Amino acid sequence: MRVSLGLISSAFFLLSAHTHPQQNSSPHKVLTPEQKAYQQRYQTWFARHQQLQSQAKDIFDRETVHEKAGDCTSASTTLDFNQCFGKLSDNAEESLKEFESVIHELLVPPPQPPGVSPPTHGPAGPSLSSTQLIAEFDNVENSWRQYRETACTAAYHQFDGGTGGRSFQAQCDLTLIRNHLRELDIIYGIALHN
Fold first, then answer.
1. Contact, 73 vs 82, CB < 8 A?
2. What is the pLDDT confidence band of residue 147, given thresholds at 50, 70 and 90?
3. Where are the domains of the chain?
């Protein structure tokens, strides 16, 4: 009798648990209009951020594929080399401009939650604002372009005014642009890959 009474009370307990589910002990959090607006802004920023990262990867990969394929392998005359390296250099320059534009956009930080200010100081030093990061990036690019101009002019001068100077200058441009894409990928890797 005790066993059957225990079974009946267990069955009653299980049955009542299914017909009367326990109420959740923690109340459902209701977001304020400011918090809802922040979530929407963040989701929009995050979607754009991922889109930009994908675009940067496509640009970088496209130029890497071109480089691995070999440059001007079918060129046989000075004119062929001039035209081929000139075209490749122009295409690489366009890729670089696209890559720079993407990095510019990626340097814009996510929106801040309501009532939270962006950090001004980290454990190792000051945090730059978005405006300061972009100005720093522009300075890096301007300095690099001056270096490239000087270096590739020097490459041209190695031919003492000869006809190969133009293609060697374009080859210099092409090489330095591709190297710079790799440098930017390292320097701005956090923005590009995280």
1. no
2. very high
3. 33-112+126-193
- Which stretches of 70-129 are DSSP H helices? 78-106
Residues 15-49: tens digit of each pLDDT: 444 445 555 566 778 888 888 889 999 999 999 99
DSSP state of 178: H
Cα 174 to its chain centre, rounded Å, is 22
Radius of gyration of the chain (CA): 30
Nearest to 107 by CA among 140, 79, 84, 80: 140
Q: Which residue has the tokens 């990061």?
A: 133
Q: What is the 3-state secondary structure (H, E, C) of 28-79?
A: CCCCCHHHHHHHHHHHHHHHHHHHHHHHHHHHHHHHHHHHHHCCCCCCCCHH
Q: What is the pLDDT of residue 123?
A: 87
Q: What is the pLDDT of residue 30?
A: 86
3-state secondary structure of 162: coil
pTM above 0.85, yes or no: no
**Closest of 14, 104, 145, 173 to residue 165, by C-alpha:** 173
